Amino acid sequence: RLGVIGDVHGNAARLAPVLDAVAARGDVRGKLVTGDLGGGSLGRGGRLWAPGEILAILRGTALPFVFVPGNHDAPRMDEPENVDGRIADFLGFRVLGIGGSPRAFGLPYEWEDGSARIAEGACDLILSHAPPAGTRLGITSKGADAGSRQVRGLLGRRPHALVCGHIHEAVGIETVDGVPCYNAGAIGGMFAGSCYGVLTLGGAAAFEHVQVPEGATR
Question: What gap in Å lies between CA 85 and CA 129, rounded to an integer?
């Protein structure tokens, strides 16, 4: 089983109980992080943690992880756990990473749909910041489809599963073109709150979405 952590947006206060909840399960071997480590707003009080600080928190846990940068993050993040633009071996699975999102908000890491950096080759898992287009996983609160046609096309490689984030209000699970897909939402933004997912592999892939009580703090 792999834990799935949505967009963090610098919110270490929400990240800590989520990491505790994932670790407490005892059956999770590693973590997939959907990006947007930085960026966001905490409202009154608190502070936003920088992407490097969020990575330090993730590295301080016992479980290994991989991530892709989100559209709020820098397009190039020279970190060993960053799988953007490549296929990396993670716990015996080939993970295809796709960072950023289609151009929409004028944020640091956006691209014209169809021009994202994507590695060639077979993969077992897709870790994408942007959801696939034409699914409910990319529908905004205003009804627009913010998913990527390029990401949708990658489902033709027949991975076991796809994990994404980006559109916080579209958190959920959907089978798309025969592939189980999961939008983990955002633990550090509006709509999703403190939550995480669990991807079970071995046989048919399956996702579980878990909400963490807001009062759960370290």
Answer: 12
Strands (DSSP E) found in 23-146: 30-33, 65-67, 87-90, 93-98, 101-102, 110-111, 125-128
Residue 66 is encoded by which pair of tokens? Answer: 């991989």
The SS3 of residue 56 is helix
C-alpha distances in Å from residue 123, one per residue of 39, 54, 57, 87: 30, 27, 28, 7
CA 107 – CA 187 distance, rounded (Å): 20
DSSP letter for each residue of 24-48: HHS---EEEE-S--S-----SSS-P
Give the Cα separation of 108 and 193 in Å (integer). Answer: 24
Instruction: Evaluate if residue 63 carries a pLDDT over 90.
Output: yes
Residue 143 half-sphere exposure toward CB, CA atoms < 13 A = 0
Three-class SS state of 54? helix
Q: Would the pLDDT of 216 be above 60?
A: no
| pLDDT one-digit tens code per residue, 119-139 | 999 999 999 999 999 999 999
- Measured in whole angstroms, the distance separating CA 214 from the mean position of its chain's CA atoms is 20
What is the bridge-based pairing of β-strands 206-211 and 195-200?
antiparallel
